Amino acid sequence: MKHQQIDQDGQNSDKVIALKEADTRKVNQSRDHVFSKLNNLTLKKLKDQVIVITGASSGIGLVTARMAAAKGAKVVVAARNEKALMELVNELREKGHSATLVQADVGREEDVNKIAETAIKEFGHFDTWVNNAGISIFGHAMEVSIDDIKRMFATNFWGVVYGSKAAVKHFKERGVPSALINVGSLFGDRGTVIQSTYAAAKFSVHGWTESIRMELEKEKVPVSVTLIHPGRIDTPYNEHARSYLNKQPAHRGMIYPPEAVAEAILYSAENPKRDMFIGSQAKALYLVGTLCPRLTDKLMEFIMYRTQHANRPSKPPEDSALYHAGYGLHERGTNIGWIRSGSMYVKAAKHPIFSTTAAIGIGVAAWAAMKRKK
């Protein structure tokens, strides 16, 4: 009887092991199937998503949160300015949207983890994570203090690292196709003067994003990793920046609206994209900088010194948002120049059929700019 019992127990154990192995094979087959279609990864529609957005109290993050909610997404907004976030969430809820907030400094890992925990507690999960929070410094690299550079890197680079880790951990646990979207900069593709330390941080973001994309692909993790490359955008970015200049930082020249960046971000939340350039300006600088680096040096030296400030005194250092929250709920800044109504390049990236139209538009824009200079 004992031998029969042992044999029966052994058979039962073998069945359990076999079932577990079968389940594991099914999971792996399912994961491999998802991975095999990674380039055609099927992401949820915005109306079915929970989206986390950092730096959501102003500028690009604020516009993205409002647009995402309007499209039916549940949004989790995070920033240092709790008052602005509360007003934003109340605004969205009054319109019938689902939203929650987290006061957080993305330069602190524990704060970023709190964002993820809040999203899961409130909605059970999240589908897209947007690392958008950022701050700039206007000043020559040799003049900017080490403390200021470290603080800026804490937000612009380490905030992205912490956010990426928190998001990917959750995405791996769920095993559901998801999106990680990191907001870079045209200065992350090509260095610049005056915002040289900011460019260094964004170069780091670009390198980080490309590297983790490859590692996640190798691990067969069903996550779409997108890098956003904004050109010059009309947001309070310049007012929030720490300035070492005598004159107030400001964009001059061709400037794109934050809606164009939000459009690219939300398109990437639904459609796997490697890169999204906001404006031909960003793409052109990337291409010219790669193909003709020395010529680009000279062009940047000629153009950028005169186009990064307004003709008014710079705000004092204590008014910047480098070490504390800046003012909130402002989508636009006080920039000077030709503020576009949108980005035809983004339209082209979303709809290849518009590529020709975008090319024509860029040509017309260049011609118009030349006419104005005459």
Automatic annotation (TrEMBL):
Q: Where are the transmembrane segments?
A: 353-370
Does Transmembrane show up as a keyword for this record? Answer: yes
* Keywords from the UniProt entry: Membrane, Oxidoreductase, Transmembrane, Transmembrane helix
PROSITE patterns given in the database record:
ADH_SHORT
Query: InterPro entries this protein is in?
Result: NAD(P)-bd_dom_sf, Sc_DH/Rdtase_CS, SDR_fam
- Entry GO MF terms: oxidoreductase activity
In the UniProt record, which is one GO cellular component term? Answer: membrane
Report which superkingdom the organism of origin falls in: Bacteria
What NCBIfam families does the annotation carry? Answer: PRK07109.1
Q: Which PANTHER family match?
A: DEHYDROGENASE/REDUCTASE SDR FAMILY MEMBER 7B, DEHYDROGENASE_REDUCTASE SDR FAMILY MEMBER 7B
> What is stated as this protein's family in its record?
Belongs to the short-chain dehydrogenases/reductases (SDR) family.
Name the record gives this protein: Oxidoreductase YxnA
- The species this protein belongs to is Lentibacillus populi
Traced from the root, the source organism's taxonomic lineage reads: Bacteria, Bacillati, Bacillota, Bacilli, Bacillales
